[in-house]
Design goal:
Layout: H1 2-20, H2 32-43, E1 56-57, E2 60-61, E3 63-68, H3 74-89, E4 98-103, E5 108-121, E6 126-140, E7 143-155, E8 162-165, H4 166-169, H5 172-175, H6 185-208
Antiparallel strand pairs: 1-2, 3-7, 4-5, 5-6, 6-7, 7-8
Length: about 210
């Protein structure tokens, strides 16, 4: 009886070993080194911020957009954008922003913005700059022409104040390497944040006319 039980156990063990021998480690389509490289490229993809990301007009940094407003009169465009700009001037992160001047007869709006541009914020670190810019809107039947100019920064005001203009800090000439394939370290964060903020502002105004 004991010998029969031993034989059964041996057969069972052999069967398990036979089954185990069918298990193999699958081959990865991308090895760990390639995966790390791909992740690294994704994390540092600055293609959006390279040559041409910061437009210039006569040597000055100027962001602009012609916003379409089909079916809306110049007066309607003017009222909608003036209201939206007033909302923007009172939003979180604004320091001293306002719709500074308007001309109802020519349907023009001028606004000045002073806001916080935050690079990094944590319990122990707050890296930010004051960011200034001027916004001008010309309203017409069915459209609005928006220009943003006079971009400048006040950085490290509590330790070593640095007053910087966009022209001397974030242009292609000042912020990219000679081949224009890489952002320079010192101004990179300013260029990225500025391009993103200008896109955000223009998109908000575009949405106001939909």
């Amino acid at each position: 009886m004991k010998q029969m039980m031993m034989a059964v156990l041996l057969l069972a063990a052999s069967a398990v070993q036979a089954q185990d021998s069918q298990w193999t480690k699958p081959q990865q389509s991308t090895d760990a080194k390639q995966q790390k490289t791909l992740l690294g490229k994704q994390a540092t993809d600055d293609s959006k911020y390279l040559a041409g990301a910061v437009p210039e007009v006569d040597g000055k940094v100027v962001f602009s957009r012609q916003i379409s407003a089909p079916g809306k009169s110049a007066a309607q465009v003017y009222d909608l954008l003036q209201a939206r700009l007033q909302q923007m001037a009172q939003a979180e992160g604004q320091i001293k922003s306002e719709v500074a001047i308007v001309n109802p007869s020519t349907r023009e709006i001028g606004a000045t913005f002073e806001e916080w541009m935050v690079f990094k914020k944590s319990a122990i670190v707050l890296d930010r700059t004051r960011f200034y810019y001027t916004l001008h809107v010309q309203c017409s039947d069915g459209r609005a022409d928006v220009t943003i100019s006079r971009l400048r920064y006040l950085y490290e005001e509590e330790r070593d104040p640095q007053r910087l203009t966009a022209e001397e800090w974030i242009t292609d000439r000042e912020a990219l390497n000679k081949k224009q394939t890489k952002l320079l370290k010192l101004s990179a964060k300013f260029r990225r944040k500025t391009v993103d903020r200008m896109d955000e502002v223009l998109n908000v105004l575009t949405d106001a006319l939909k």
